[in-house]
Amino acid sequence: MKSLTKSGWIICIAMSTALAGMILYIVTSTTGYLAGTTVDPLPIIFTVVAILLASTLVVATNRLNPLLIDLFVFTSAVLIIASFALFVLGRTSLAADVYFIPVNYPKEEEVALNISIVGLVSYFISIITMIIVGFSDKIRKDYSSNNTKYKQKNMPS
Fold it and tell me: How many domains does the chain have?
């Protein structure tokens, strides 16, 4: 973890916010107002795959081909965007009931919508951070034998 650059730390933020969004998606889909409805597994699968790809970037980026690194960043971002979109599509009926038909809706429906909004914000932060990573430099500091600054600092004279 010490060798991570700012980009590496941003990927860690993206992973943790995507995980938080996924947990909130699962919680709102299985409890409260939406307890009896079917849960769409695609946002969960997409988020898990995106987190696995991002964790591969953090752990093994120095051993990966630069083209593969770009592909992993792009794929992670697309999967998180797809999870976000599916989450939004699953909650539009809640928003319509609470905001556009503001009479006689159960309190649990508003609670489910508010928790869903927090989950959507988590996914949105994850999307933004993955886009930032896509335009940033290395994920890990390079301590290879070609790095003379590191050699001079840590090698005895």
Answer: 1
In a domain, 143, yes or no: no
Whole-prediction pTM value? 0.84
Residue 144 domain-assigned? no
Question: pLDDT, tens digit, for every residue of 74-132?
Answer: 999 999 999 999 999 999 989 988 888 877 788 899 999 999 999 999 999 999 999 99
Domain range for 111 is 6-135
**Has residue 151 been placed in a domain?**
no
Spatial distance between the Cα atoms of 25 and 112, rounded to a whole number of angstroms:
10
127 is a domain residue: yes
- The 10s digit of each residue's pLDDT in 16-39 is 999 999 999 999 999 989 998 999
In contact, 84 and 127? CB cutoff 8 Å: yes
